Amino acid sequence: MATTTAPQQAAPASPGPMKRIILIVLIAIIAAGAAGAGVWFFMSKRAPTVASAEAAPPPAPAPLFFPLESMTVNLQSDDGQQHFLRIGLTLKLADAKTQQELTDHMPEVRSRILLALSNKHPDELAPLEGKRALATELRTLIEQPTDKGAAPIHVQDVLFTEFVVQ
Q1: What is the pLDDT of residues 131-155, one digit of tens each?
Q2: Residue 87, exposed/middle/buried by CB under 10 A (0-12, 13-18, 19+)?
Q3: Coil, strand, or helix at residue 90?
């Protein structure tokens, strides 16, 4: 009897424990690098915005608007007719202290405004430039000190809320 021997097939070699450890360490290093890169990427984008927000000056306080009562005044006229101006003003102020100073001296401020307005001609006030010049003139009049030696009152702007010439 003849015996035949069949070639034996070699079983596939399983990876050794050393190869597994190297593969696990390699995956951990790649994951840690990706996490570090992600953190650096997102933090570097936020850092300039935080720094620029700290460097930006604080916003200016909101202005205070102080409306004056409407005034009616006779205007100068060369044609012999009566002309009137009805005007409403609102003052733009920086703070409540300025408003209190104006309130305390309101009769004097109104008198200055009325005297200045009564010296105007209707033709001066008709164009836009005439109105702008009037606002500048009124601002200068209002800012004049009311008491001798007192500091001038600071008015940011004079705004017209009513302007009728007849």
Answers
A1: 999 999 999 998 888 777 778 888 8
A2: buried
A3: strand
